[in-house]
Fold this sequence. Notes:
alpha/beta; Rossmann fold; 30% helix; 32 strands; seven-stranded antiparallel sheet; 4 domains; Beta-Lactamase
Amino acid sequence: MKIVPDTSIVIDGRLKRFLEQNTVDEIILPELVIAEVEYNANKRTRIGITGLQELTEIREYCLTHNIMLTYYGERTHDYRDMDEKIRKVAEETNSILVTGDFVQGKIADAKGISCLILEKEVETEMKIEDFFDPQTLSVHLKEDLPVLLKTGKPGDIDLVRTQRMLNREELEAIALDIVERARQSQDSFIELDEKGATVVQLREYRIAITQPPFSDRMEITAVRPLKKLALPEYTVSGRLLARFEKAEGILVSGSPGAGKSTFVQSLAEFYKDKGKIVKTMEKPRDLQVSEEITQYTALRGSMAKTADILLLTRPDFTVFDEMRKTEDFQVFADMRLAGVGMVGVVHATDAIDAVQRFIGRIELGMIPQVIDTIVHIENGDIGTVLNLTFSVKVPHGMSEPDLARPVIEAKDFESGVCEFEIYSYGEQIVVMPVKKQNRTPPKKILKNIDKFVGVDYRLEQVAPNKGILYVPKEAMAEIIGKKGKTISQIEKEVNMNLDVKPMEEQIPVNLDFTKRAGRLSVSRRYRNVPLNFYCKGEPLFSATVGKKGVIKIDLQSKLAHTLYDIWNRGDTVYAKEE
């Protein structure tokens, strides 16, 4: 038997096993195969290193078993159409082509070339899957060190140090098994194969294999998603769910392992179920999404080229997983401005840090057009949610009108309270936290107003020296006075500029907290009267006022927690008669 092996069976040991199980008289080894192995070995890729070892072992086997080994043909620096060139060698030498590549074998059969297709025989005692159990998130194998396992769930992860240790030879065997199964499986692929580093997506496992000179020792790290969640399984309000349906520039942030990828998977499925065309841009492609959602990687190493193709496919939404490089942020912005709904994923310790990743990469004024919602994931669930708005105003902390400028406001989505302002100051971009203001004025100011105002009123303090005085509509003229004389006296007394506005039949409520209870106080004329209580137009609860005009709320109740949040934000509670 005279055979011509191709590269696929040289690099993984199948040729050597074939020789052990069959009578072979001569091996015609194309110089093309040797050149390809050498090329990959010089790049220090996994395929190249194992290929060198196999070439040496094949030669030794031929010498000891009296098999003729002939090197045939010329070397090449052009690695295009390698399969066709190797088939031609088999045809010219009238030999049997032996391959592990199913497509290569079928093409050879179609062209009348004798061919044997070898299936992969797995002899590895250990597989990477053997280290996982249902609670394991990731496995960390490092040469001559204990095997480390991360178990639990995002926000509650334990690092388990086992007694088991693996040597270089055992890690090599596991790595070779991973690479070869990825090459032959339709649902797996080799994402990266460079000098000292290989990244493989083996079904649901994302695996990084590193070795010297890239790393100090050989190491294999494998990560897998523990659970797929649907969007309603997260802590998501009806208002936020409605926002997701309308939002078209979503940024998902979180620290490594917080659960960002799991969340964007659920968001992608949410849009797919809404009848949207959804695509992904990933490197590596490790999101676990349904087959209807097409997953793209970097085309010839560039996400910009991927975006060019994506725009031709006309997606409604695109998930851009793990944005790191400046080009990634620019591609995200370009696609969003082209009208594609975008969901981006970034590493960040909090929501505002995610926004700052865009500063300096795109124009400041474009950021609110590119991003409208930021979702920060903490411990596997939705934490902070911000929305961005754009306006021209005097930034917080400044008072002169001529300091007005374009300002991006990052507001808490649920409360609407501005958390940060982003604006240019000279040549610098400022991201300024907005100090939360207590909109409930001090009791001293209220006592001074009581001297002048003999009707029900509500004072909302909107700045340290400015407030809004709500009074019954019929009392407004009296409170303002002729030519504003009365209100001027009040302003002088309380040292505050006041705008007088109609109360709109709202009963003012003073909200405070003691060590034992929450207290809502109204005018005593409402004692024993049933009232409905509101905040920002939303009903809170109904209750009958006590004899002293006070309603006490148990601190352990859910209502007390709601009221405390309102009080902490500085928002106002008011009441109306039933």
